[in-house]
Amino acid sequence: MKIKIALPLFLVALSVLLIGGTVDLDSLFNYANQDIPDYITRDNTNNNLIDDKTATLGRVLFYDKNLSSNGSISCASCHLQERAFGDPEVQSIGVNGLTGRHSMRLVNPRFSDEVHFFWDERALTLEQQTTQPIQDHLEMGYSGTNGDPNLEDLIEHMGSLDYYQTLFSFAYGDATITEDRMQQALAQFIRSIQSFDSAFDEGLEATNDLVAPFPNFTAQENQGKLLFLNPPGPGGGAGCASCHQPPEFSIDRFTTNNGVITVAGMPGEIDITNMRAPSLRDVINPDGTVNSPLMHDGSFTSLLEVVNHYNSIPDNPENTLLDARLEGPGGQPQQLNLSGAQKQAIIAFLGTLTGSDIYTNEKWSDPFDPDGSIEVIGGNLGISEIDVMPTISIYPNPLVNRTILETDLDGFRLRIYDISGRLIHQDQTEASSVEIDLGTQASGLYLVTVTDPMGRSFSKKIIKQ
Question: Residue 166 phi/psi, 5° resolution?
Answer without folding.
Answer: -70, -50
